[in-house]
Amino acid sequence: MSRRTLVFVLCGLLVAVGLAFGVSRFASSQPDGLEKVVTDQALDAGAAPHALADGPLADYSTKGIGDPGTSTGVAGVVGVAVVFTMCGGLVWARRRVGRRRFAAVAEAEA
Amino acid sequence: MHVPDGVVDAPTSLAAGVAAVGAVALSLRAARAEALEARAPLTGLVAAFVFAAQMLNFPVASGTSGHLLGGLLAAVLVGPWLGSLAVTTVLVVQALLFADGGISALGVNVLNMAIVPAVLGYGLFWVARRLLPGTRRGLLAATALAAFASVVLASVAFTLEYAVGGNHAAPIGTVLTAMVGVHVLIGLGEAAITALTVGAVLSARPDLVHGAGELRRRASGHEAVAA
């Protein structure tokens, strides 16, 4: 990866962290379109709450942080870090596997 | 747009799960060409951005909000296969860490929010790109149109899944009308955010926009060569 791309990725991550930490507190807390339709038309009658609803970051709030804005913001930053690592790692691993196979095929053909 | 547990029954969720696993495996296979361009950090960034943007619900009608799905955005930036992988990662983390989207509904959510917008949506983008002028403005118009359509398609996909495995509390026509109606509005937000983001990346690094095609080739394209 070139230096310019590295700078781009770092700047992009900064934007994502800014959105997750600083802007998320201003987001609408109304139900989204699907939630609204599901509730209005009782499409989920009898559904149990989410199995992991007691998790430390459930519903985008961090357990133990009182201020709602900060609680959501911290959860968001953790999410950004986890998603970046998992997804980047997945593609990175995929690339390595692809290369190894490519090398094996090239060797077999030689 | 995350489907919670208990809306779509177990057999349908399982079938959607199998289809989603198949689609992800296919994406991993097909991503080979895309991944060769050293796209790991960029794909991670796209996923992180989509996660952050999905937190930002915007009001659309009284008592209702919407948020970016990001599948089309991801596909235009890193290609449909890496794009659907990026959004799938977001959905898995949201279900397991943030209790957003049911765990049994993960397959349904991956189909609706990752595969349909990134793969089907990208198909629409591809067609729109060829019908519109090959300029920056044409590219952004194709992006906006496909982003809008991807959200409406996702809402139709949910309605189909509900038709197959729902509780029949409401007639399918009513569910379809309500879902498409509200997601037309959310789709406008999706179109605006997606076009703005792609426009920003296009200004900074046109060579990093997978869907830019000729625009990319017309630019210096140093990264594609250097990587």
Structural summary, described in words:
The complex is a heterodimer of chains A (110) and B (227). Chain A is mainly alpha-helical and 110 residues long. Chain A is 65% helix and 0% strand. Chain A has one domain (3-29, 56-109). Chain A contains 3 helices and no strands. In chain A, helix 1 (3-23) packs antiparallel against helix 3. The two termini of chain A are 30 Å apart. Chain B has a single domain (10-226), classed as Arp2/3 complex 21 kDa subunit ARPC3, CATH 1.10.1760. Helix content of chain B is 73%, strand content 3%. Chain B has a two-stranded antiparallel sheet. The longest helix of chain B has 33 residues, at 172-204. Chain B is globular. The model of chain B is unreliable at 219-227 (pLDDT under 50). Chains A and B meet through helix 1, helix 2 and helix 3 of A and helix 1, helix 2, strand 1, strand 2 and helix 4 of B.
Question: What is the strand and helix layout of this fold?
Answer:
The complex is a heterodimer of chains A (110) and B (227).
Chain A: H1 3-23, H2 33-40, H3 68-109
Chain B: H1 10-35, H2 40-54, E1 58-61, E2 64-66, H3 71-78, H4 80-97, H5 106-131, H6 136-165, H7 172-204, H8 214-218, H9 222-226
Antiparallel strand pairs in B: 1-2
Helix pairs in contact in B: 1-4, 1-5, 2-3, 2-4, 3-4, 3-5, 3-6, 3-7, 4-5, 5-6, 6-7
- The rounded Rg of chain B comes to 17 Å
Classify the beta-strand content of chain B into a percent band: under 5%
> What is the domain tally of chain B?
1
- How large is the count of helical segments of chain A? 3
Number of strand elements of chain B: 2
Instruction: Write down the Rg of chain A.
Output: 21 Å
Number of strands of chain A: 0
Count of separate DSSP helical elements of chain B? 9
Which class of secondary structure composition applies to the elements of chain A? mainly alpha
What fraction of residues of chain A sit in β-strands? under 5%
Identify low-pLDDT runs of chain A: none
Estimate the mean pLDDT confidence of chain B: 92
* Biggest beta-sheet profile of chain B: 2 strands, antiparallel
The CATH architecture term of chain B is Orthogonal Bundle
Distance between the termini of chain A: 30 Å
